[in-house]
């Protein structure tokens, strides 16, 4: 199982750090988000070897990292914008390759709400 935490309400320009704790060993891990009325979209992903990939709209603002000893991934979000408001989901997969497609990920968390006020 994957358990997200760290969401909340923040003003535009502020920061939040999301955490995703896995109950067991995972290979690649990722963050997706889903805003009301929109499809779930890829945000960022990381391999066990710390190779990363980001969606263009978060480059330079968000940073994904992980602690393999704790089976935990993090998403540091800086300079948040109202359009970043969404439920953020953690995902993990058995294999190491990173994909931005939702269907490539094997496990999902329940999500954590991030709300950015203007």
Number of helices: 0
Radius of gyration: 13 Å
Number of E strands: 11
Mean pLDDT: 96
Termini Cα gap: 34 Å
The largest sheet, given as strand count, sense and whether it forms a barrel, is: 7 strands, mixed
Helix/strand/pairing category: mainly beta
> What sequence of helices (H) and strands (E) makes up the elements?
EEEEEEEEEEE
What is the approximate shape?
globular
Helical fraction equals under 10%
As a percent range, the share of strand residues is over 45%
Low-confidence stretches: none
Question: Short summary of the structure?
Answer:
This protein has 118 residues and is mostly beta strands. The protein has strands at 2-5, 8-11, 16-22, 29-34, 41-46, 52-54, 62-67, 72-77, 86-92, 107-108, 112-117.
């Amino acid at each position: 199982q994957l358990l997200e935490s760290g969401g909340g309400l923040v003003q535009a320009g502020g920061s939040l750090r999301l955490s995703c704790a896995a109950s067991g060993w995972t290979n690649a891990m990722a963050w997706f988000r889903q805003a009301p009325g929109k499809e779930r979209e890829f945000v960022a992903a990381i391999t066990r070897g710390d190779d990363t990939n980001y969606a263009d709209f978060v480059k330079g603002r968000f940073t994904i990292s992980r602690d393999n000893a704790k089976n935990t991934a993090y998403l540091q979000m800086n300079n948040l914008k109202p359009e970043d408001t969404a439920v953020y989901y953690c995902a993990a997969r058995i294999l190491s390759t990173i994909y931005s497609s939702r269907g490539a990920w094997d496990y999902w968390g329940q999500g954590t709400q991030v709300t950015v006020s203007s």
